[in-house]
Amino acid sequence: MYLLPSTERPEKLDVSIVIPYTEEQIKNLLSKKKDKTSVEDIIASVISDGDFKGEKDQLLVVHTHGRIKPKHLVLLGIGKQEELTLEVVRKGCALAVQKAKAMKWERFAIITHFEKIKEQEALHAVAEGLLLGNYKFSKYKTEDKTKAVREVIILVKKIDYVKDILAETQIICEATNFVRDMQNENAYVMTTLMIEKIARDVAKEHKLKITVLDEKQLKKIGMNLLLAVGKGSRTPPRLIILEYKGAGTEEATAIIGKGITFDSGGLNLKPTTKIETMRSDMSGAAVVLGTLQAAAQLKLRKNLIGVIPTAENIIGSGAYKPGDVYMSYAGKSVEIGNTDAEGRLILADALAYTEKNLKPARIIDFATLTGAILITFGEYVAGIMGTDKETAKKMYDAGLKTYERVWELPLYEEYMEEVKSDIADLNNIGTGYPNASSISAAAFLSKFVQKTPWMHIDIAGTAWYSKSRYYMPKGGTGYGVRLMIEYLKNS
Ligand code: BES
Ligand code: ZN
Ligand code: ZN
User: Fold this and answer.
1) C-alpha separations of 64 from 14, 68, 102, 201, 457 in Å
2) What is the distance between the alpha carbons of residues 76 and 47, in angstroms, rounded to a whole number?
3) What are phi and psi of 31, to 5 degrees?
């Protein structure tokens, strides 16, 4: 979708116009006797009957019957002035674009003035609501190809900085939609080798350095946990490393993403109702690709290292088994208590590899790691755990700003006891299971980072929605890109 800034007067445009109104503005409009513009006049006459009060989520399409150039005005309710936030703006704009789509408008215009919200921030939120709300994964629909809206005219008072804000928002939202496409794709298409191909494409297009370790190289250096998880699959594991240099010799931030292309649970097979959405278990990997792509396009002054361990956790005659012991890259032996706790295995090897060979200043990992995080926070908040208090605080702030929120859980020493094994150094399922299993998963990961400040973000609840909510679609949400970019901008 293309966003076109314009200072044109609404009356002059030959497309439908979305106009956001607070409840107060609607009341004022009705009591105002004189000096109404022609647009306000039309609106006043249709709202005097009380059909539109400006309440949140209210949408009313008004036919102008040739009194002005636009055929329709769309009144968008944004609620009470004092409750107006950027999130209300995002949600309202998503409803507006979805309405336009339902009306089969290829273009429309929107007024972007919101009282008491800084113009820059409002514009960013409007663009987010439009670009993210216009997303639909329709690749496999043979009918009902409702066309997405092609262009939205963004009505502003002055043009100067508007273009830059729209361009920036466009980059971030397109990266988010790119992540969504990867999440929603068939598991038999989005294989480890496809993730490698996409990573190579991203690297080529944005001039990033890329290194890919194949199964032979992984074997040679002893990444046996990553290899073990992939043993049942026809598509072999990979470790993919991307590097973006936007800050010369400065130390880098590493972002690691879990890339399980399908999580059947392995021999500890997942039951019906849990297995159906497990093609989304590569969401962390997609977030890494989306973030690096956006960072490169935005020319962020940061050095970033993206690391993706990818494998398929599936049953086959070669599959790894409960009770097996494997030697990790870090040199700690791990008993497989449960083949469904595979995420922490591939991350353990990736964390140790990253710290030892890539030496970043800090590590942040994104992983759809535990069902328990969904039980804890629902689909609204991600869990954050680790050793880097500064990053935790900054991530929390970035979460409030983007509404991709995180909440910290404690990594107390008692949890560390729970990942010990009788026959090996560690067990991949906590002895307290199923109690606190999001935390014991993080406790397991912590054993593979020696001294680098590290935070783990469990996105099992936020990466995938069971139903659509405003600008977040059902299925893959792309959660993480907007959060990471906002964090990087402020770090
Ligand atoms: N990929 C799952 C976690 C998950 C659950 C993601 C629901 C998205 C939605 C992970 O690999 C897993 O299976 N975790 C187990 C761990 C357990 C066996 C210790 C879990 O959370 O049940
Ligand atoms: Zn699993
Ligand atoms: Zn998994």
Assistant:
1) 12, 7, 19, 48, 50
2) 12
3) -80, -20
How far apart (Å, rounded) are the C-alpha atoms in residues 460 and 281? 8
pLDDT of 41 reads: 85
> Ramachandran region of residue 153, left (φ > 0), alpha (ψ -120 to 50) or beta?
beta
Overall size of the chain counted in residues: 491
Q: Is 116 left (phi over 0), alpha (psi -120 to 50) or beta?
A: left
Sign of the dihedral defined by the CA atoms of residues 154, 160, 166, 167, in that order: positive
* Distance between Cα 233 and ligand 3 center (Å): 15
Catalytic residue among 270, 302, 332, 469: 270
DSSP states of 353-418 as a string?
HIIIII--SEEEEEE---HHHHHHHTTSEEEEEES-HHHHHHHHHHHHHHS-EEEE----HHHHHT
- Paired tokens of 235: 């598509």
DSSP, collapsed to helix, strand or coil, labels residue 111 as: strand
Global confidence as pTM: 0.97
Segment 225-245, tens digit of pLDDT = 999 999 999 999 999 999 999
List the shell of residues around ion ligand 2, using CB closer than 5 Å.
263, 340
The radius of gyration of the chain's CA atoms, rounded to the nearest angstrom, is 25
Tell me if residue 344 is catalytic. Answer: yes
Residue 33 is a catalytic residue: no
Let me know: does 82 contact 123? Beta carbons within 8 Å. Answer: no
pLDDT score of 145 more than 70: no
From the DSSP assignment, how many helices (H) and strands (E) are in the chain? 15, 20
Instruction: Please tell me the distance from the alpha carbon of residue 358 to that of residue 245, in angstroms, as a whole number.
Output: 13
Spatial distance between the Cα atoms of 18 and 36, rounded to a whole number of angstroms: 18
Opening angle at CA 161, ends 157 and 162, nearest 5: 60
> From the CA of 227, how far away is ligand 1's center (Å)?
19
